[in-house]
């Protein structure tokens, strides 16, 4: 996974970010079948501006949709904005597969 997430954001600031993942499996990740990046309960950073679709109900219930399918051994990028809280916080996110389970390590 690669990203351009800033190491630091001033309170209340906004940063456009991109997270790129490589599909190392033998199944295509289809943008239309709920492969999404999702926020977890401990997250306190708001995600906004989803160019490929997404939603933010609250800081622990947000999803960023894939812009296109990712065939095996290709890449997909999730793009969105992070809005820093007014007090210092950390965010916790994982890739959510098919709307059912969390996958991989925390990435933010």
Task: Give an account of the 3D structure.
The chain is an all-beta fold and about 110 residues long. It has one domain: Sandwich (Immunoglobulin-like), CATH 2.60.40. The protein has no helices and 9 strands. The strands form 2 sheets. It has a 5-stranded antiparallel sheet with strand order 5-6-3-8-9, with no helix packed on it. A 4-stranded antiparallel sheet has the order 1-2-7-4, with no helix packed on it. The model has no long low-confidence stretch (mean pLDDT about 80).
At CATH level 3, the topology is Immunoglobulin-like
Trace the largest sheet across and list its strands.
5-6-3-8-9
Total domain units? 1
The general outline is elongated
**Structural class assignment:** mainly beta
| Main sheet overview | 5 strands, antiparallel
CATH class placement: Mainly Beta
CATH architecture annotation:
Sandwich
What's the alpha carbon Rg, rounded to whole Å?
A: 13 Å
Mean pLDDT: 81
Question: Would you report the number of β strands?
Answer: 9
Terminal residue distance: 11 Å
| Count of DSSP-assigned helices | 0
Q: Which consecutive residue ranges, at least 5 long each, have pLDDT under 50?
A: none
What tags apply to this protein structure?
Immunoglobulin-like; 108 residues; 9 strands; mainly beta; five-stranded antiparallel beta sheet; elongated; single chain
In short:
This protein is an all-beta fold and 108 residues long. 0% of the residues lie in helices and 42% in strands.
Furnish the topology, listing elements before pairings.
Layout: E1 2-3, E2 14-22, E3 36-39, E4 46-48, E5 54-58, E6 61-65, E7 75-83, E8 93-97, E9 101-103
Antiparallel strand pairs: 1-2, 2-7, 3-6, 3-8, 4-7, 5-6, 8-9
């Amino acid at each position: 996974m690669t990203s351009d997430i800033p190491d630091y954001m001033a309170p209340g600031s906004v940063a456009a970010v991109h997270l790129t993942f490589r599909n190392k499996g033998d199944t295509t990740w289809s943008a239309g079948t709920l492969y999404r990046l999702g926020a977890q309960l401990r997250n306190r950073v708001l995600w906004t501006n989803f160019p490929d679709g997404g939603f933010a109900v609250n800081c622990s219930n947000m999803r960023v949709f894939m812009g296109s399918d990712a065939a095996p051994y290709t890449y997909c990028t999730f793009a969105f904005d992070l809005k820093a809280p007014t007090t210092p916080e950390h965010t916790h996110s994982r890739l959510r597969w098919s709307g059912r389970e969390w996958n991989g390590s925390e990435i933010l």
